[in-house]
Write a structure and sequence with these properties.
Blueprint lengths: L2 H25 L56 E5 L3 E6 L4 E13 L2 E9 L7 E8 L17 E3 L5 E9 L4 E10 L4 E10 L5 E11 L15 E5 L6 E3 L1 H6 L3 E5 L2 E6 L2 E7 L5 E10 L2 E7 L3 E3 L4 E12 L2 H7 L13 H18 L2 H15 L1 H16 L1 H10 L4 H15 L8 H19 L23 H16 L6 H18 L4 H30 L2
Parallel strand pairs: 1-6
Antiparallel strand pairs: 1-2, 2-3, 3-4, 5-10, 7-8, 8-9, 9-19, 10-17, 10-18, 11-12, 11-14, 13-16, 14-15, 15-19, 16-17
Helix pairs in contact: 1-9, 4-5, 4-9, 5-12, 6-12, 7-8, 10-11, 10-12
C-alpha cells in the first residue's frame, strides 16, 4: 500500500465516517426500549386522536405499594380553550395557556436566530406551525384532579421577573366538592430551569390519592438543519444503569416506553437545545412513558410516585423542567448525566478533555476561533514525534521514487518481480512502506473527537472570529476557508511521493477539488481546524523532507 494513497483515503474515510455516524445514530437499527408489552406497570390509552387524547394512564401500584391503583377519572371538566399568560425573565420569553397550564411558546432571549436577525430569537417551544413542540402536565387520580385538559384560572395574565431572584406564576382550579389545586411555575434569574409544583388542598370528606405528571409533546421537525451536517433530533432517557439512551421517533411509534426509574430523567433534543423533565429529588422513583397520539405527534413523559392526601389536609407534588441551550457547565449540575445530551459520539472520553482545553483557552483569548487554532497547535505538538515518523517515511519514499518508477517500467508485465524488486529497494534503504500509516491511524480518534466537539458545542453558535467570519457554526459565506483547505491539501500532495499508477495519480489530483466543494458546506469552525492542521502538517513535513534530502546530498 502506498503511503500517499493511504493518507488521502484516510482523509476521505474520516469524512464518510462522520456522515455515517450521524446517519446511523438517527436512522440505524436501535435496540428497542422496554415497551408496554414487556411491563404490566403501564398501558397507554388506545384509539387516541391528535393532541386531544394524549393523557397518560397512571402506573400501577408498583410505584407505591402503599397506595391503590390510579386510573384517570371521568369527573374532570375540560374546556377547549384558555387564556394566555405572558411570562418574561432575563433569559426566557414564554406563554402559558390556562387550559392545562401548558407552556405553548418559549423563546430564548440570549439566542438570536442568526447574526443578521438579532431581534428574532430562537423559538424552542411553539403550539402551532410545522414544528409543534409544547410542555404539558397535571395530576392523575381516580378522583378529581387537574390535568392538561383542565381549565385553570390565574390572578393576572402578565408576569415579569424585573430584577428579582425568582418569579412564581400560580394557576388555580377547584372541584365542586372542595378539592383545590394550585399549579405554580417558579422561574429563576439567570437559569433555564423552572420548578413545577402542584399544591393539593383536600377540603373534601375523603382521602385523595394521585400523581403528578409532565410530558413533552412535539412533532418531527420539518427543518432539520444542513443536509451535510445533521445531529440527533428526538427523545432520550437516563437511568443509573444507562445515563444516555436515545429513543427516536420511530421507536416511539413502534415500542411504547413503560419503565420505573429512580434518579432518572427524560428529554427531547435538537441541535444545540434541549427540553428535559427532571424529578425534584434523586430519591424518587418516577414512571417514564411514551405516547404516539398520531402519525406525527410524539410524547415522552414522567409520572411521580403516588401520594395520598388525607381529608382536610394538603400536600405538594413537584418536578422540574429545563428548556434551553446545551451548556455543559450548567447541565452537569442540574441532573446526573444531563450533560451527556451534548453528544460527542463514540470517542466522548477523548472529546470531553478536548472541550475542557478548548473552553480553558477561550477563557484567555475570549475568541473561539483563536481557541480552535491554539488547540490544533497543542494537538500537533502532542503528536509531533508520531507525525515526524510518518513524514520521515514519506520523505524516504519520495527519495527512492525515481528508482521505483524505473523498476515499474522494467517489470510492468510481471507483477511478482515488480513487487520483489520494490521490497528489495525498501530493504536496502531501510524504508517501511507502511511507516506513514500507523501514526495517522493513532491520531484519527482524536481528530474525530475534536470534530464532534466543534459540531456539538452551542458556545460556538454565532461566535465571531475575525474579518468576514462572524459565525463559526455556519459555512464560510465567501468560501475562503474551504479554498484554503483545498490549497493546503494540494500542497500536501506535492510533498508526498506520487502514486505509481497513473490512473491513481489522476484520481488523487482531483481529491483536493472534491474536498473543497464538500467542505464548503461545513461550519467554518470545523474548516478552520482542518486548514490550521494542514498548514502545520505542511510545515513539519517540509522541514523533515528538506533535512532528509540535504543528508542524502552530502553522502
Amino acid at each position: 500500500m502506498e503511503t500517499t494513497r493511504f493518507i488521502l483515503l484516510v482523509a476521505l474515510g474520516l469524512v464518510l465516517m462522520m456522515i455515517w455516524q450521524s446517519w446511523h445514530e438517527d436512522y440505524g437499527n436501535q435496540q428497542p426500549i422496554q415497551s408496554s408489552s414487556e411491563s404490566s406497570a403501564y398501558e397507554p390509552l388506545a384509539e387516541v386522536t391528535p393532541n386531544i387524547d394524549d393523557l397518560p394512564e397512571a402506573p400501577s401500584t408498583e410505584l407505591n405499594k402503599q397506595t391503590p391503583s390510579l386510573l384517570l377519572g371521568e369527573k374532570n371538566k375540560h374546556s377547549s380553550s384558555g387564556e394566555v399568560i405572558h411570562v418574561k425573565t432575563d433569559l426566557l420569553d414564554l406563554e402559558i395557556d390556562t387550559l392545562g397550564g401548558t407552556i405553548r411558546h418559549l423563546e430564548l432571549l440570549n439566542y438570536p436566530v442568526s447574526k443578521k436577525q438579532q431581534d428574532d430569537k430562537v423559538v424552542l417551544l411553539d403550539h402551532d406551525g410545522n414544528n409543534f413542540y409544547i410542555i404539558q402536565g397535571g395530576l392523575l387520580s381516580k378522583q378529581d384532579g387537574a390535568n392538561h385538559k383542565t381549565l385553570f384560572t390565574a390572578p393576572k395574565n402578565n408576569y415579569v421577573l424585573d430584577g428579582k431572584d425568582s418569579l412564581s406564576v400560580p394557576l388555580m382550579w377547584e372541584s365542586d366538592d372542595g378539592l383545590k389545586v394550585i399549579k405554580t411555575y417558579t422561574f429563576y434569574k439567570g437559569q433555564y430551569v423552572a420548578d413545577i409544583n402542584y399544591e393539593v388542598l383536600n377540603a373534601t370528606t375523603s382521602d385523595w390519592t394521585g400523581s403528578a405528571y409532565g410530558q413533552i409533546n412535539r412533532t418531527d421537525p420539518v427543518d432539520k438543519g444542513s443536509r451535510f451536517i445533521y445531529t440527533y433530533t428526538g427523545s432520550v432517557i437516563s437511568s443509573p444503569e444507562k445515563r444516555y439512551e436515545k429513543i427516536d421517533f420511530d421507536d416511539i411509534k413502534e415500542d411504547r416506553l413503560s419503565v420505573d426509574i429512580t434518579n432518572g430523567w427524560v428529554a427531547m433534543l435538537q441541535h444545540y437545545f434541549i427540553t428535559a423533565l427532571i424529578p425534584a429529588s434523586t430519591e424518587d422513583k418516577f414512571h417514564y412513558y411514551t405516547l404516539n397520539p398520531d402519525n406525527n405527534s410524539y410524547v415522552i413523559g414522567a409520572i411521580s410516585p403516588a401520594k395520598t392526601i388525607l381529608a382536610g389536609s394538603s400536600d405538594n407534588l413537584t418536578h422540574r423542567v429545563y428548556f434551553g441551550p446545551k451548556l455543559q457547565k450548567r447541565l452537569e449540575h442540574i441532573a446526573e448525566g444531563l450533560n451527556l445530551t451534548v453528544d460527542f459520539g463514540i470517542f466522548w472520553f477523548l472529546a470531553k478533555p478536548l472541550y475542557w482545553v478548548l473552553d480553558y483557552i477561550h477563557g484567555f483569548t475570549n475568541n473561539w476561533g483563536w481557541a480552535i487554532i491554539l488547540v490544533t497547535l497543542l494537538l500537533k505538538i502532542c503528536f509531533y514525534k508520531l507525525s515526524a515518523a510518518g513524514y520521515r517515511s514519506m520523505a524516504n519514499m519520495r527519495k527512492v521514487q525515481p528508482r521505483l518508477l524505473s523498476i515499474r517500467d522494467r517489470y510492468k508485465d510481471d507483477r511478482a518481480k515488480l513487487n520483489q524488486a520494490m521490497m528489495d529497494i525498501y530493504k536496502e534503504e531501510k524504508i517501511n512502506p507502511l511507516g506513514g500509516c500507523f501514526p495517522i491511524l493513532i491520531q484519527i480518534p482524536v481528530f474525530i473527537s475534536l470534530y464532534w466537539v466543534l459540531l456539538e458545542s452551542v458556545e460556538l453558535r454565532q461566535a465571531d472570529f475575525i474579518l468576514w467570519i462572524h459565525d463559526l457554526s455556519i459555512p464560510d459565506p465567501y468560501f475562503v476557508l474551504p479554498l484554503l483547505m483545498g490549497i493546503t491539501m494540494f500542497v500536501q500532495q506535492k510533498l508526498n511521493p506520487a502514486p505509481m499508477d497513473p490512473v491513481q495519480a489522476k484520481v488523487m489530483s482531483v481529491l483536493p477539488v472534491v474536498f473543497t466543494v464538500f467542505f464548503a458546506f461545513f461550519p467554518s469552525g470545523l474548516v478552520l481546524y482542518w486548514v490550521v492542521n494542514n498548514a502545520l502538517s505542511i510545515a513539519q513535513q517540509w522541514m523533515i523532507t528538506r533535512n532528509i534530502e540535504r543528508a542524502s546530498a552530502t553522502k
